Amino acid sequence: MKFFVDTAEIDAIRELHALGMVDGVTTNPSLIAKSGRDIKEVTKEICDLVDGPVSAETVALDAEGMIKEGHELKKIADNIAIKVPLTWEGLKACKTLTDEGHMVNVTLCFSANQALLAAKAGATFISPFIGRLDDLNIDGMELIADIREIYDNYGFTTQILAASIRSANHMSEAAKIGADVATAPPAVIHAMANHVLTDKGLDAFLKDWEKTGQKIV
Ligand code: G3P
């Protein structure tokens, strides 16, 4: 499973990138607002750092506007994936932009039918939002499994990009189901390293080591 980082915070991306943990980046209007940065400036910095796809989201509501914004965003760098919402207009924009050869990430997906339409429209990535479904007491992971099954049934090549990831558990569950990509906030990727037994074990080893009075260096 590829790891995308769901943030527009350049320092956090840089740290994870140095560890080889960044296969791509996703941003959205909320994350750009949170960064306090200019969209083109910060997206360019991210694209200069990361070789993989960097999703930058359009904000127009009509297909023509999305296509226009997509073309503008694409000027930032070759590795831009144009992000459009899963609306009828978004699907139209997706078809045009992918026909032109651009990578398109169709976002705000909450049903298997929406994912099926995005694949038919040629989406490069489909972004089902797990956490926001869980918030409504609907099993977000079940949606990932349904999309996996449907895409595999018919050989769709659209990549399933599990989004709205809120916990380390979401990451392993998405990987078990076979999501192609998961995009997670930096804190979730860090949390994947944690285990209470690791902390406990390390503590015991260090206490025993201290008793030996030895030093390694
Ligand atoms: O990738 C989409 C993501 O940014 C949404 O996450 O936590 O705002 O639902 P969240």
Write the layout of secondary structure elements.
Blueprint: E1 2-6, H1 10-18, E2 24-26, H2 29-35, H3 39-49, E3 54-57, H4 63-74, E4 80-85, H5 88-99, E5 103-109, H6 112-120, E6 125-128, H7 130-135, H8 140-154, E7 159-162, H9 168-177, E8 181-184, H10 186-191, H11 196-212
Parallel strand pairs: 1-2, 1-8, 2-3, 3-4, 4-5, 5-6, 6-7, 7-8
The structure holds SN-glycerol-3-phosphate.
SN-glycerol-3-phosphate is lined by residues 6, 26, 28, 129, 131-132, 163-164, 166, 183.
Key terms:
single chain, 217 residues, alpha/beta, TIM Barrel, eight-stranded parallel beta barrel, 11 helices, binds SN-glycerol-3-phosphate, transferase, aldehyde-lyase activity, pentose shunt
What does this 3D model show about the protein?
- By secondary structure, the protein is of the alpha/beta class.
- The chain has one domain: TIM Barrel, CATH 3.20.20.70.
- It has eleven helices and eight strands.
- An eight-stranded parallel beta barrel has the order 1-2-3-4-5-6-7-8, surrounded by six helices.
- Helix 6 (112-120) links the parallel strand 5 (103-109) and strand 6.
- Helix 1 (10-18) runs parallel beside helix 3, helix 4 crosses helix 5 (88-99) and helix 6 (112-120) runs parallel beside helix 8.
- The model has no long low-confidence stretch (mean pLDDT 98).
- It binds SN-glycerol-3-phosphate.
- The site of SN-glycerol-3-phosphate has 10 residues, from helix 7.
- One of its GO terms (molecular function) is aldehyde-lyase activity.
- This is Probable transaldolase.
